[in-house]
Amino acid sequence: MSCRFFSQFAIFATYRFKNMKIIKYPNQSEYKAILSRPTQDISVIEERVAPILKRVKEEGDIAIRDFALKFDNVALDNFTVNISEIQNAESLLTEDLKTAIKQAYANIYKFHEAQKSVPEKIETIAGVTCWRKSVGIDKVGLYIPGGTAPLFSTVLMLGIPAQIAGCREVVLCTPSNHPAIYFAASLCGISKVFRIGGSQAIAAMAYGTETIPQVYKIFGPGNQYVTAAKMLVNKEGIAIDMPAGPSEVAVYADETAKPAFVAADLLSQAEHGIDSQVLLVSTSETVVEAVNQELSSQLAVLPRAEFAAKALENSQALVVENQEIALEILNQYAAEHLIMSIENAEEVSEKIYNAGSIFLGNYTPESAGDYASGTNHTLPTNGYARAYSGVSLDSFTKKITVQNITQAGIQNLGKTIIEMATAESLEAHANAVRVRLANN
Amino acid sequence: MSCRFFSQFAIFATYRFKNMKIIKYPNQSEYKAILSRPTQDISVIEERVAPILKRVKEEGDIAIRDFALKFDNVALDNFTVNISEIQNAESLLTEDLKTAIKQAYANIYKFHEAQKSVPEKIETIAGVTCWRKSVGIDKVGLYIPGGTAPLFSTVLMLGIPAQIAGCREVVLCTPSNHPAIYFAASLCGISKVFRIGGSQAIAAMAYGTETIPQVYKIFGPGNQYVTAAKMLVNKEGIAIDMPAGPSEVAVYADETAKPAFVAADLLSQAEHGIDSQVLLVSTSETVVEAVNQELSSQLAVLPRAEFAAKALENSQALVVENQEIALEILNQYAAEHLIMSIENAEEVSEKIYNAGSIFLGNYTPESAGDYASGTNHTLPTNGYARAYSGVSLDSFTKKITVQNITQAGIQNLGKTIIEMATAESLEAHANAVRVRLANN
C-alpha cells in the first residue's frame, strides 16, 4: 500500500539535483538487480510495538491515554470526537476545497458502486443450486495518520467502499483534527471517530477498549510503527488491507511522450519521501535526456524539493531496445503505479499483467487517480502487485457461498459424493449422503 | 482454511461415546466463552520451520533432497513427476471413481466460471474513464498433503479456479503419488508436479529452486509445519490463500430437522480429527436429544470413530429460546460451514452475515460442498469468516485498475485535483496537472 506518510516539515531549499541514473540497454541477466527494491526489516520495530499492543489489550482506554501522553505529549481526557465537531467541519472549509472533495466523492462513489455484483444462482446439475452472496464486513476500522498533511483523500478512498459495502460499524482513528478529514468522514457516513494515533490506535481497533469498538479488518496507511502493529494483529486473526511499503511509480515513455509531463509525474511520486521509488523506462534516449532536464527546472520551484531530489537520485532511467523488452521489464517490476505515455497505450496495456493501477496516455497523471478520477489510491506496492489487487469494494465485502439441494438433487449428486469420500477414506462424509438417500 | 490433514491411521475401535455437552438457554453474557475456540500458538513450530526455509532458500534442490531423507526417509533422485505418469494416472482408477471426479470437475468448473466478470468501463465525469481488468496471477503454487487419504478433491478446488483464471504457471507439490491426485491435476491442466512435501515444499515454491519454479501465491492445506511455513513466507511477500485452523461446522436445527441427518453431518465434520469444531444450535430440546442418540448409533459403525467421538465430546449443543437468538449466536460464531436445517432456510439465511459457506435445508449435507456440488471447500475457519471469504476465482485473479483521461477530461477534473493536492501539501501532485492544463 502506498505509504502516504512523510516528515513533518516542507523544506524550501535550493538543492542541487544531479540527474536520474541512466542505464542504457541492460542485459536480461541484469534486470533482477536493477529492479530490486530496498529490503525492509521491521522486526526491530515489531519488538518495540508488541508491548504497546499487549498493554492496550490488557488495560484498554487507560493504556491509550498513557501512550498519548508519552508518545504524542497529548493529555487526552476524551478521545471520542463529538458528532457535532464532525458535522460542523464543513463550515470551516473554503468553498473551493468543499466543491473539490464533493466532486472526488462523487467520482470515487460512482466507480466503486459499479463494482457491486448481483448474486447469480447456478444450477450445477439438476436440483443442485449454488450461489455467492455479498455481505459487507460487519465491523471495519480505518486509520489515517497525522502530520502536517491531512490525508482526507484516504478517508474517501476507504470510507466510500465501506459505505457502499454496507459495513455496519465503521470506526475511524486519526490523531489529526483537520476539518477536511472530518468533512470527508461525514460524507462517507462515518460517525465513530477517535482522535488517537500510532500503534496504540491499531491495537485499540484490533482488541477493542471501553470506548473503541473492536473491528474485524483494519485499513489505512501509517508510519513503521503503525505498519508493524497491523502485521502483528494480523497474525492474531485481524484482517488487514494489504502489506505496506514505500510508494512507487514506473513511467513507460516512447517518443510520443511529453518530457515535461513525465518529469512532473516522476516528481509527484518523488515528493512523498526519500524512500519513494521511481523508474523510467523508455525506448528513446532523447526523451530520457529531456526528462532529466525538465526534472531540474521543475524541481527548483517545489516546496518539498529536497525529498524529491534525493528520491530521484536513487532512481533509474532505463533505455531499452524495443517495446517487447520494455513490457518484460515492467511486468517483472510490478509497479504500484504504471504510467504508459506511449502511442496506442490502451492496446499495449493489455500486455501488462503485473501492476497496481495503470494510467494511459499523455493526459492521465497519477495524481488523477490519487485524488479524484474514481479509482482507489490504496494499491499494492513493493512488488505485491504480482499477487495482490488494490483496495476496492471487494476489500470491504465477503462472498459467502450458499447451496440448496433438493431431494432429487441429492439423488443426482449422491453417488459422486459417496465415491469420492470413500476414496479419501472419509466414511462419515459418505454416510451424510447415504442417510439422505435412504430417506428419499 | 479447513485443515484437511489428519493422522495416518484410521482406527477401527469401539469407543464409548458420552454425548455432546448440552447447554440450555445460555445468557448473552455467556456466548463469548461458549463460542470461544481453542487458541493455537504456532511460534514454537515457526522456530523449527525457519531454518528449513533458510536452507531451501540458500541451497535449493540439495536442501530439498536432504530434508526428504531426514523427515520422510525418502531418497529422492528426481522429484519431478514425469508427465507420462500424470497422463497415465487415469488408467489406474476405477470407472466409478473416474466418473465421480469428472462430475465434480464439471460442477466446480461451472460454478467458478460464472464468477468471471466482464470489465465495465465507467466514465466518472466527461473524458475520465476508469475500469478494472482481471488478470490471472501469473505463477501460483498448490500444496496437497500426503497421508493415507489422497486429497484429490482439494486438487480440483484449487486447480479449477487457477485454470479458469488463466494462471500461466501452476505448480503442484505433493508427497502423495496417488493416481487420483494426478488424474485431478491433469483435468485441471497442471503439468508441473513435484513429489515433495512439508515446509520444504512451501519454501521451494516461495523461493524457487533449480527445479521448482518460484510462485507469487501459495494455496493449500497442510499440517502445522506447512501452516507455519506459509505464515513465514507470507511475511516475506509471498501471498497465501488464507490463515489456517481446524475445520468446523455449525448446524442450526429446528423441529423440522431430521436428527439422523444432523447427526451424520456432525460426524462428517468430527471425523477430520479430534480438534474438529462442532456446534449444534437448536430451538428444540427434543431434536437435540434425538441427535445425541443418533450420534451414538451412527458412530458405532464408523472407521474413524475414535477421532469423531473425541471431537464430539469437546463440542456443544445449545438449546435457545428462539430464532433471533440462534442467529445472533451463529453470526457471533462465524462458522466455516453452516448447515441450516430449518423451515424457510433460504429466507432465514439472508440474516446470516458471518459464515464461510451455508447449506440450506434437510437435503444439503456439507459433504456435497466438500466434494461435488460446485462450491469451493477451501473456506475461512477459526472465526476468520468475519472478514475473509473462501477461495474462489477471485483468489487466483488480480484486478488492475486502468484509467484513460482525455485532454477535455483533465480540463474537467484538473481543478479538483489541484485543490485537493494543495490542501494535502503535495505541490508536485498539483503540478502534474498544471503542466497538462498549460499545454492544453
Automatic annotation (TrEMBL), chains A, B:
Catalytic activity line of the entry: L-histidinol + 2 NAD(+) + H2O = L-histidine + 2 NADH + 3 H(+)
Biological process annotations from GO: L-histidine biosynthetic process
Calcium among keywords: no
Active-site residues, as the UniProt record annotates them: 336-337
EC number(s) on file: 1.1.1.23
Pathway: Amino-acid biosynthesis; L-histidine biosynthesis; L-histidine from 5-phospho-alpha-D-ribose 1-diphosphate: step 9/9
Binding site for Zn(2+): 269, 272, 370, 429
GO cellular component annotations of the record: cytosol
Keywords on record: Amino-acid biosynthesis, Histidine biosynthesis, Metal-binding, NAD, Oxidoreductase, Zinc
Pfam families documented for this protein: Histidinol_dh (PF00815)
Identification of the protein by name: Histidinol dehydrogenase
Gene name tied to this protein: hisD
